[in-house]
Specification:
Strand order of the largest sheet: 2-3-7-4-5
CATH class of the largest domain: Alpha Beta
Number of helices: 5
Helix content: 25-40%
Distance between the termini: 27 Å
Structural class: alpha+beta
CATH topology of the largest domain: Ribosomal Protein S5, domain 2
Length: 217
């Protein structure tokens, strides 16, 4: 099975499951630093001070350079680590999760705890808005008015967004393309305009498109 694509939490969410009268409530948020993650965790512990446990896990960095987890009083390796494993398995980056447990009076055993905490995280992720940023480069394409329609057609055919169009002495179209399409787009634009268009490429970024706007990560 192919690896899951790189994903981030754009908008956080919550999810709740119940297992043998215990309530497991997952709180998930995007973060960009360990300090942000710790602040979020401490905030949830304060908010849900009456819960038996507030277990946590977070991943930080483009390659998950920082990973942390905490069982908060549950038996070792039954809460924080299983929660972290879900984030890693789903290839989620720059994310923190706290699972609040209200004890229902019935012991779940180590296997039951692992399954419950993981299920809570999955339920929380299902209620988040996730994005899958790509590696690519922004570009500006300058052309005369005869080439404008041709370039617009090429971009739409390649499913590349038109982020902005400036009409002056020439037409300048702003777009963004996945890195693997850069050389191909150079060739196609040159061919379609008989070399009368100039493409200027910016440095490589991670990005996604939402509601016609570029989001950079």
């Amino acid at each position: 099975m192919a690896d899951k694509e790189f994903r981030i939490v754009y908008k956080g969410g919550t999810g709740e499951i119940e297992e043998k009268k215990s309530r497991f409530i997952a709180h998930i948020a995007p973060v960009t630093s360990e300090e942000e993650a710790v602040q979020f965790i401490n905030g949830k512990k304060k908010e849900f001070w009456d819960a038996r446990h507030n277990c946590s896990a977070f991943v930080i960095g483009q390659n998950n350079e920082i990973t942390r987890c905490n069982d908060d009083g549950e038996p070792a390796q039954t809460a924080g680590r299983p929660m972290l494993d879900v984030l890693l398995r789903e290839n989620i980056h720059n994310c923190v999760v706290v699972v609040t447990r209200y004890f229902g009076g019935v012991l779940l055993g180590t296997g039951g705890l692992v399954r419950a905490y993981q299920a809570a995280v999955q339920e929380g992720l299902a209620n988040c808005q996730l994005l899958s940023p790509k590696t690519g480069r922004e570009c500006s394409i300058a052309t005369d008015y005869n080439g404008y329609g041709k370039i617009e057609y090429v971009l739409r055919e390649k499913n590349l967004p038109i982020l902005n169009t400036d009409f002056g002495a020439d037409v300048v179209i702003s777009s963004v393309a996945p890195s693997e399409m850069v050389e191909n787009l150079n060739t196609i634009v040159a061919d379609k305009t008989a070399g009368n268009a100039v493409i200027t490429w910016d440095d490589e970024i991670r990005y996604d498109i939402l509601d016609g706007q570029i989001l950079k990560f």
